[in-house]
Specification:
The protein is mainly β and 304 residues long. It has a single domain, classed as Jelly Rolls, CATH 2.60.120. Helices cover 9% and strands 35% of the residues. The strands form two sheets. Strands 1-4-13-6-7-8-9-16 form an eight-stranded antiparallel β-sheet. A hairpin with a 4-residue loop joins strand 2 and strand 3. This is Xyloglucan endotransglucosylase/hydrolase. Belongs to the glycosyl hydrolase 16 family.
Length: 304
């Protein structure tokens, strides 16, 4: 039985999370939203039109006339869905409301991925935790089937109390991960420095809710409490301002005039990125010299 994507972070990363586990700040001042250019939406927000539920034996459901999608997990199985379309570059937005309460052992994965053994992939994974402890947001970038580029964060809000927007900007120059419009990570195109970059393989959007209690929470020390099942995550307001790939061709012409195609972080965005990473990043592979005794990956000299 299919249980989920099965990708895992290194044990050094998982164990490092819990050494610094912290409660949400009660007095945290709401972040100032970043002004982002208004982008035309290329994909209507209707899950019937845009996605297929691919596994879970009825545990994945499209509701409210296509405006809401839910995934659930119980002891027998999780569930998942994928986009009908493939994309080669774009700005992708999705609002998620994560599993509330004791979510330890569960993983909600939301990512773009190409097929095959030399795939490219752009990951958001939300690692559940005990009630009162923060979720861990795990990010990764795969090129040609190789990842090992984990950056992990705690969030500045409770992601189970309401919907929040998780976005990926993917253009030929960079990949930027956003949370509620705030950039949290940038992976630049450094092909001139010998670093592979995802730019040739179209990707679908995937999401799944699955059990990963062998590693997800405190390195597998905390197991899933099945008395809390079913666990449920919800999705809404999907937007894809993107180049759709179909029959070997892109919906975008060679003179792509979409603002996102050349979008980069301005000074405000760069400062915001640094602020988030300073205050909420809890693991960065580019700082883990013990993991890379032969030297850090090449991109670490350039990417934040």
């Amino acid at each position: 039985m299919k249980l989920g994507p099965g990708r895992c972070c290194p044990m050094e990363a998982v164990n490092s999370l819990d050494k610094g586990t912290m409660a949400y700040s009660k007095n945290f001042t709401l972040l100032i939203s970043i002004a982002i250019s208004s982008l035309m939406v290329a994909s209507a927000s209707n899950f019937y039109q845009d996605f297929d539920i691919t596994w879970g034996d009825g545990r994945g459901k499209i509701l409210n006339n296509g405006q809401l999608l839910s995934l659930s997990l119980d002891k027998a199985s999780g569930s998942g869905f994928q986009s009908k379309s493939e994309y080669l570059f774009g700005k992708i937005d999705m609002q998620l409301k994560l599993v509330p309460g004791n979510s330890a052992g569960t993983v909600t994965a939301y990512y773009l991925k190409s097929p095959g053994s030399t795939w490219d992939e752009i990951d958001f994974e939300f690692l559940g935790n005990l009630s009162g402890d923060p979720y861990t947001l795990h990010t990764n970038v795969f090129t040609n089937g190789k990842g090992d580029r984990e950056q992990q964060f705690h969030l500045w809000f409770d992601p189970t109390a309401d919907f929040h927007t998780y976005s990926v900007l993917w253009n030929p120059q960079r990949i930027v991960f956003y949370v509620d419009g705030s950039p949290i990570r940038e992976f630049k195109n450094l092909e001139s420095n010998g670093v592979l970059f995802p730019k040739n393989q179209p990707m679908r959007i995937y999401s799944s809710l699955w059990n990963a209690d062998d590693w997800a929470t405190r390195g597998g020390l905390i197991k899933t409490d099945w008395t809390q099942a079913p666990f449920t995550a919800s999705y809404r307001n999907f937007n894809a301002n993107a180049c759709v790939w179909s029959n070997g061709k892109s919906s975008c012409n060679s003179k792509n005039n979409n603002p996102w195609f050349s979008q980069e972080l301005d000074t405000t965005g760069q400062e915001r990125l640094k602020w988030v990473q300073k205050n909420y990043m809890i693991y960065n592979y580019c700082k883990d010299s013990k993991r890379f005794p032969q030297g850090l990956p090449k991109e670490c000299a350039f990417n934040i």
